[in-house]
Amino acid sequence: MLIAFVGVMSATPEGAILRWGKEFLIDGEAPLLFWKNAFTCLFGAVLSALLDREHKEVSGRRILKGWPFFALAVACQGFIAISFPLAFLYTYAANVIVLFSLTPLFSAILGWVLLDDALPRRTVLALVAATASITVMFVRPSGERPGHVFGDVLALVTGLVNSIFLVSVRAGLRRVPDLPTPLASSIGTALGAVAALGWGNVCDVSSPVFFAPMLLDGFSIGIILVAFSIAPRYVSAGEIGLVSLLEIVFTPGWVFLCFGEIPPEPTILGGAALLVIIACHEWASLRADRLDYARVAPDRRDLEQPEFPAIDDTYATFKPQRAASTT
């Protein structure tokens, strides 16, 4: 649990880091998009190599076996590599992180439609309540700049694309259990960096200090990737999902402390309601998992923790740069 906590907390300053980097931009977002993704790709590649060194079969062969799922995962991560930081630049950090946190609920629906997963009643109720909360968040105060609406929509779409990533990885792991899923995230961020080259001059910054927040952001994302690759060995997906909710609270908190940004009242009300909804859903999912385990393994109740799935399969249930997803 401590490992998951450290990983989540390392990613919470991302909104503030991106705002810090924005101060050094002269014209356009190309430098931020390029260097953020370049450093994230660097740390992600190191992580992928460390996680993959125990496999006897080379990554290329495993990718070929499940290439449709791997390609879709890469495409999704490429989109997220651009859309997620842009959302932070156009709207409130609280809006971005709250709307993005809907990924677990989106994943449950897609898993039900595409993978024949069970859709618990608690998830249906959570989706209905979450829709009402989002509607409240989209009530715009008078005088607000139109770009905030674009940022909100971008954050919501990013959460949906992230759920597609999770479902594609899960489907790929069913076909190829040792599919190198962390590598898909690294390649996706590399595509994001390449896409930024067509956005504008990636060196058009006002000070070399700009590279400090970009390097820091890449390192922080690297930490959460490592943590979410190790934590599933010791705790369940539901427990990691609950810890990940801290991001909804601390990410806007960092932006407030550093830049004094206060979200509008609709965001606070809708976001607070959504936080409660997701927390209750994750807690109910965790409780249901433990009850199921107690039923199927009554003779092993003396164990402190149940045996969890293989690391790659469990890791695929989570957002690679964000909070855990449970169905």
TrEMBL record:
Pfam families: EamA
Keyword Manganese listed: no
Keywords: Membrane, Transmembrane, Transmembrane helix
Highest taxon in the source lineage: Eukaryota
GO cellular component: membrane
Segments passing through the bilayer: 63-86, 92-115, 124-143, 149-169, 181-202, 208-228, 240-262, 268-286
Family annotation (InterPro entries): EamA_dom, EmrE-like
Residue stretches making up the EamA domain: 34-138
Name the record gives this protein: EamA domain-containing protein
Organism listed in the record: Chrysophaeum taylorii
